[in-house]
């Protein structure tokens, strides 16, 4: 069923989501990012409003390719889209600032970047606007990234390309293909490189915090019992169909099939479904809930190699042939034990990450020159801010 795949995605994303939520939520100007992150850390039982909002974010690519198939999302992948919209906003500001100031961090200049009715807009104007719009939360994210990399070095740990590729593969499996994953990513103004960078930070959090997590055998068994109904593979059928516009056409084709005509050949010649006719009408395997109710009922009632009667749906008139079947399979505890342990560890890492990151910031020496009003660590005022204000206050008394 679908829920275990949702959980895989949750665990694959949670660490970096939490980290971004910790840093970005501090800035009032990052309201869009905060909203997206709040959605991600909500309870797993999503409301109807969440379902409606998320479905609107899905790309056209997830809509049904075949007549008779209902539009559906591949295991709610838009959770990724919602989360990374906030992340991409921060990174987009960062990338634009870099483009304006140069990769070596040089200051913006008075070079003219636009002229409006004779009035100039300079690089300096653009830079200051970008910093005001999102520079503070972008810098806050970079500070957290730097702290993570320092902790990794202290622990003698590293994130390898293989680590990132493994997590990327999980996302591709969740979305069905690399192309579909990248479609969601691009819809939200991101790139593959940006997403891989965020995966890198997720893995850093997991490597740093996982050794502090203990998951008992009893806890794993309890988790299995609570979720085993979602872990199996449901019954599936593989079917081919021929779709035509009128019942008379369908009757004529059905008569030919009963006289021994080849189903695939007739599908290529006469079916009006562009998504399947070139494959001889083949729709591949599908489970319950994937097709129109009338189509599904007829298909699951057929035995292998059996023809249906004429089936009417809103798309027209179908003749269905089941070519294969897969019975439902429920995995045993031993088969799922290692995977469930990993999920539980990831859940604990996610739970701990907010407090751990805040404690890490508190014990570090951070001088934020872009946001001097933000107090530095260990109760000391940031350079050029509260300390200077206190001094000036004393002089005025």
Automatic annotation (TrEMBL):
The keyword Transmembrane helix belongs to this UniProt entry's keyword annotation: yes
Major location category of this protein: membrane
Annotated GO biological process: protein folding
Pfam families: Rotamase_3, SurA_N_3
Transmembrane segments: 80-100
Any one annotated GO CC term: plasma membrane
Enzyme class, first EC level, given as a word: isomerase
EC number from the UniProt entry: 5.2.1.8
Matches recorded under PANTHER family: FOLDASE PROTEIN PRSA, PEPTIDYLPROLYL ISOMERASE
Protein's recorded name: Foldase protein PrsA
